[in-house]
Design brief:
The radius of gyration is 14 Å and the shape is globular. With 74 residues, the chain is an alpha+beta fold. The longest helix is centred in the first third of the chain and has 9 residues, at 20-28. It has a three-stranded antiparallel beta sheet with strand order 1-3-2. It has helices spanning 9-16, 20-28, 45-53, 63-71, and strands at 6-8, 34-37, 40-44. The protein has a domain at 6-55: Arc Repressor Mutant, subunit A (Orthogonal Bundle), CATH 1.10.10. The model has no long low-confidence stretch (mean pLDDT 84).
Length: 74
């Protein structure tokens, strides 16, 4: 990874080799640290390194939860 301090969402997703949508899920789950400058959401380099160096056994999204919400089952 480059030695930058902050990455925009597209650059951060590219650094982790995931989609921007998957990155948004990680941000929403507070797995990545962000900073806002105006309207722009920026992800910290340290949180990208921390996430990339960990093992992640869970899927970024849980499709079974989304399916049950759509069908009304809970």
């Amino acid at each position: 990874m480059e030695a930058r301090i902050l990455y925009d969402r597209k650059e951060a997703a590219r650094q982790l080799s995931i989609s921007v949508r998957s990155l948004d899920y990680l941000i929403a789950r507070k797995e990545l640290d962000t900073r806002r400058i105006g309207r722009k959401v920026l992800v910290t380099h340290a949180s990208l390194v921390r996430y990339a160096s960990g093992n992640h056994f869970d899927a970024i999204t849980n499709r079974s939860d989304a399916d049950s919400d759509a069908s009304g089952d809970k």
